[in-house]
Design a protein that fits this description.
The protein is an all-alpha fold. It is built from 16 helices and two strands. Helix content is about 75%, strand content about 0%.
Length: about 375
């Protein structure tokens, strides 16, 4: 284990929540509304949560067999040195790819809304620098920082939803399931990869003080994330309708901007910018940390910190090469990425768990100790 930091089960819950919701609520809402129509609030809650529950069962069972090692560390032990190193390298690439997506998501909103004249690479360098510093300090530092960010983030989110709900038109949500379950399933698929971030337990489990509480933390996260998604989409569809929501670039930002109470309480979109910056930096730091650990495991290094700067530089470059426009980013997120996510979040861990059980690799599961 290359990081000696320790986190509590509550900090794990907060990290899982911010890792999913920090960007998801801004980007995936419009696509869900496009595919599921008025039932988007069901689409973002039912199928993604069922998908994540399966992942929780797999990753917790696997992590308990190797309680002192992260996923990329014990892969060679389970499947052999060369295949294990190749898989670890693949996960390193996946974490770097996701970090690139997260940086692009974060920078795009700030660039479009607040700093249109600032070169995008400059914004990316600033974001990467802050996140890399957090990753360098370790997972414990990231978790403690998130303890400050998380309550402000959730309070601001709920405040916006509650204030906007005064203009909610229930007819915008009717009729329920008019076109059956298929649109709900299609819309839910767009949210599954983000709810599947719960698989990060595989990279965080060794740092957990109360390892027997990993399942409870994951399930609480799913309950909280599901409730937040359901309530948020319910309000957005109720206020704007599904057609308008589907065509908004940033529906949640538009919802905050829409709020006006007595011409006194308005312009709440500043809250979106604040929580967006704070949440995305924490999320990016988690991905940098995991990418650094995975890269060090792959290369056999004794310190993951040496890999962080090259990884950050790579993400800044790739963010412009791969996703030069917001359209390219959205296209990737809702076409290619769900397929990759299914393999990385569920298929590969399930296969590794099966092989570990058959080959009797790993120690006695913690739950049985």
């Amino acid at each position: 284990m290359l990081d000696n930091g320790r986190i509590s089960s509550v900090q794990l819950l907060f990290l899982l929540f911010i890792t999913e919701e920090a960007t998801t609520i801004l980007y995936s809402s419009g696509k869900a509304a496009e595919l599921a129509g008025p039932d988007a609030w069901l689409a973002t809650s039912l199928l993604p949560t069922l998908y994540a529950l399966v992942i929780v069962g797999v990753v917790v069972a696997l992590a308990r067999r190797f309680p002192s090692q992260v996923f990329t560390e014990y892969l060679p032990e389970v499947v052999g040195k060369i295949p294990g190193k190749l898989l670890a390298a693949a996960y390193t690439a996946f974490f770097i790819l996701l970090a690139t997506v997260i940086m692009t998501e974060g920078v795009n909103l700030i660039h479009i809304i607040d700093f249109p004249r600032t070169p995008v690479p400059v914004l990316g360098i600033v974001w990467a620098g802050v996140a890399v510093y957090g990753a360098y300090l370790g997972i414990e530092c990231i978790a403690r920082q998130n303890q400050l960010v998380w309550p402000v983030w959730l309070f601001s989110l709920l405040l916006i939803f509650l204030l906007a709900s005064k203009d909610l038109h229930i007819n915008n949500l009717k009729p329920v399931l008019e076109n059956g379950l298929l649109p709900v399933i299609r819309g839910g698929i767009t949210r599954c990869p983000w709810r599947g971030y719960v698989f990060f337990i595989l990279m965080l489990f060794p740092y957990l003080n109360q390892k027997q509480e990993a399942s409870q933390a994951a399930l609480l996260h799913l309950g909280l994330a599901t409730s937040t998604s359901l309530f948020g989409m319910f309000v957005m569809i109720g206020v704007f309708g599904d057609l308008v929501t589907a065509h908004l670039v940033f529906p949640f930002y538009a919802l905050a901007r829409y709020i006006s109470i007595g011409h006194f309480l308005e312009r709440l979109e500043i809250l979106v910018v604040i929580i967006w910056v704070a949440g995305v930096i924490v999320k990016l730091a988690v991905f940098y940390h995991s990418a650094g650990i995975a890269a060090a495991n792959t290369l056999g290094l004794k310190s993951y910190r040496a890999t962080l700067l090259p990884i950050a530089i790579t993400t800044v470059i790739l963010s412009r090469v791969l996703y030069g426009t917001n359209l390219k980013l959205v296209t990737f997120m809702f076409t290619t990425y769900p397929i990759i996510a299914l393999a990385v979040e569920l298929a590969v861990p399930a296969l590794i768990l099966l092989i570990a059980v058959i080959r009797k690799k790993g120690g006695k599961p913690i739950a049985d100790v």
